[in-house]
Amino acid sequence: MKIVTTNRRAEHDYHILMTFEAGIVLEGSEVKSLRQGAVSLSDAYARIDNGQIYLLNLHIAPYKYSSRYQLDPKRRRKLLLKKREIRKLYGLITQRGNTLIPLKVYFNERGFAKILLGVCRRKRMYDKKERLIEKELKTRVDRIKKGVR
Question: Is 0.70 surpassed by the pTM of this model?
């Protein structure tokens, strides 16, 4: 598995409740751009429309050596999931506060582009503060164990 990019901000801003693997429908030279790592997950999210899942605001930069037409870098892209998984996601998303966030874009062993979607709930400010306090305490304990102040 070759990881193209990860959404590190998602773990900081969201509680990840469940994950799903989905295929991405790409056109033209988007696969070549993806292989070069020219992708950004910063504002991306997924939405269910008419029984299909679409990924919005995923920025895939245009491939600079392409001689064909250039696609919109932030166009909506269809995700490939089974109907049962889409129904399950729909049930989870309709609950208040849950959203679908892409966590990782990668190529599997067979060379297909895949995306790891997470059903997420936004963290509150106090959750983030608790995490920072725990991290700081852990570093203090590690320093004391090493004998460095």
Answer: yes
